[in-house]
Structure formats: structure tokens, C-alpha cells
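We emphasize that the prediction below concerns an isolated chain of 253 residues; any contacts that depend on oligomerization or on bound cofactors are therefore not represented. The input was used exactly as deposited, without trimming of termini.
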Amino acid sequence: MGVRPGPAVAYRGGVIDVRRAGDRHRGGEPDRGIGTRHSFSFGAHYDPDNLRFGALIACNEESLAPGAGFAEHPHSHTEIVTWVAEGELTHRDSTGTATVVRPGDLQYLSAASGVRHTERNDGDRPLVFVQMWLAPLEPGGEPRYEVVRGLGDTADGTGYPVPRAGAVLRVHRPAPGERAPLPLAPAVHVQVVRGAVRLDGTGGADRSDGVGGAVLGPGDAARISGGEPVELVGTAGPAEVLVWEMGAPGTPR
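Result of the prediction step, given as a C-alpha cell string:
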């Protein structure tokens, strides 16, 4: 089963397409302690109508039991950003990097012309993380790796830029009733990690536009294409939301 859209609603010159957690494609290898939920066409799961949004070509929720992990495998021409929600992720790659990534840390791997890596749960409790792949604007280059420790709320307008993909990632943690404006961009992807938020037009209580009242819970996402400003409003906390600001929705590579 693919990710069923919906409903997508027209919103003041743009479109908001809500994708629910329960409608994601389930993958992984449960007998090896690996669980995956795919937002886009990925690996053996092919959905020609759901290949990418903006630069984003994968947004996977991964869960690894203690001792479980992904064996060494290659990547190329892909920008990979990982956000740990629970537990500890151990990363090793062919550049000699070995790192433990914890909740609140952001991991960035630019695969460029080619890199190999492993990802494991070497801890003693379950590991849950969101891994997002972006298509680069240009292929090639040298691999690059970085970890940002304790990335704070970016509601003040700062964020983590991925220039090779023409994208910026922001983290919002609105308390119940608190508002956080979403960026104005051709493509905005909203992914709820925990808690719940509502999508509202900047008119606040105005619900006649079809946006107010669209509540997103853990694992839910929204794809926003153009239109007038939209805000996140915290409804249940603590909330944590990953927001990508990108160029046009684009077409498959």
C-alpha cells in the first residue's frame, strides 16, 4: 500500500496535501528488529505517483531494536539528513567517521560521488529516527559528514541549510496554543515527530479556508505548494516538527 493523499485542499493560491502516518508503506525486516515506514516510493516499494516532493525523495521513519542495524551499504548523489527521536544511532562510514547521534542531534551526510556507511543501534533501548534524502542540484563532489549537537528550536528564522539540495531544514517545538510561522516557499514539507499541531492560515481562527482544524499528530505530514502564509499551532505537547523549505515540487529524476 502506498501513501494515500489526502485530502489535498486548495489554499489561497496553493495546495496543502495531508499524508497520515497510518497510510505510509510499511517495510523493514521485523524478524531482524528493523521497522520502516516510507513516505515516498522507496526501494522495492515503487509508487510512480509518489516519487518526490521538492528536493525530498525519501522521508523514512526507522525503528531499530537493540543490536539491530543496517549492514554497510553504498550511497551516491544523495544528501542524507537524519533526526533521532529516541535512543542512540551509531554511524560509521568509509571516510573513517564513527559517531553516536542522540535525540536533538542532526546528522548530515552528503554522499556526493560515493560513500559507504553502516547504521546500528548499539544501545540497550529501542532506537527511532527519521531519515530524509534529498536530490542534489548537481551530481558529484566530495563526501561530507557533519553532526549538529542539540539543534534548538528554529522558530526565530534560523535553520540548517543544505545548499547542495537548495533546501533548509527548520525545527519547531510549539507549546499548546503557540504559533510558529511556516516559510513562504514553492515547496514546504512538514513532518511531525511528536506531539500534535494544527495548520492555520495567518488569520488565526479563520477556518473557512480549509486549513484551520487540520491537525497533524506523530508521523503525520503535510506537503504545501505555494499559497499564502500558513502557521503551525501547538495543540498537544511537547511537539516537535521538522519543516523543509525547498524549491519547486519538481519532477522525478
